[in-house]
Amino acid sequence: MDKNVYLYVCPGLADWETSLATAMISNLNTDIPKKCGYNIITFGLAKEPVTTSGGVTILPDADVATVDLTGAAMVILPGSPQYEHDDPTQLVPVIQDCIRNTIPVAAICGGTLFLARHGFLDTVRHTSCGQEWLKRRAPGYQGEDQYVHAPSVRDGGIITANPLGFVDFAFNILETLDVFPPEVLEFWHGAVKNGYMNADQFEDEDRPA
C-alpha cells in the first residue's frame, strides 16, 4: 500500500517552494521510473478553500484535527506569511507526533519559522531565511549554533530550506523517501540545477544493443 505524504496548505502558500518535491514524489507522476511513489494529502487548519500566493485555490483533503499519521511517510510545511501574522499553533501536536514516531518533517521558508518558534530546531542542524530573521520572529529560538547557511539542510529527521533552496529541498525529500535509485536522483538533481535534461540518455539506456 502506498504511504501518505501530508502537505499543509494555508492562505498565501508559496506555490514554488513545495511543488517540485510533491510533483516528483507523487504516485501519479510516472514520467521517470521510480522505486516508489506517495499519495499527496493536503490538509489545512479547516477544510475550507485557501488561495496561494500565485492565486491558485486549493480545497484541503482534510483539516488538522482529522489528520491521521498512521502510515504517514512525511509532513511538509510550505512557506506562507501566515506563520508571521497568525501562528498556526494547531500544528504543534502534529509535529510532536511526527517527532515521537520518527516521521520526517520538511519545512521551507515560513515553515522553518514555525518550527523554530516551537522549539523543533533547537537541537538539529537547520537553515532558514537567516539567523537574525529567525531570532527576530521567534524570541524563544535557541538553535542559533545549529544554523547553517545553505539552500537546504537535513538532520535528525527534519529537513529545512531557504525559500530559494527549493531544488535542494526537493532533493532532500526525494532522498529521504527513497523515491529514485541514487544514480537517477543525482542525474535529476544535476539536470534541474542546470536547467537542461537530456532525455536521450534514458532512451539510449533502454534501447537494445
Element pattern in H and E: EHEEEEEHHEHHEEHHH
Shape: globular
CATH class: Alpha Beta
The helix-and-strand class reads alpha/beta
Corresponding CATH superfamily: Class I glutamine amidotransferase (GATase) domain
The spatial strand order of the largest sheet comes to: 5-2-1-6-7-9-8
Q: What name does the CATH topology carry? A: Rossmann fold
Calculate the terminal CA-CA distance, rounded to whole Å: 36 Å
Low-confidence stretches: none
Tally of separate helices:
8
CATH architecture: 3-Layer(aba) Sandwich
Main sheet attributes: strand count, strand direction, barrel closure? 7 strands, mixed
What is the number of E strands?
Answer: 9
The helix fraction, in percent, is 25-40%
What's the assembly state of these chains? single chain
What percent strand?
15-25%
Domain module count: 1
Residue-averaged pLDDT: 94
Q: Using only CA atoms, what is the Rg?
A: 17 Å
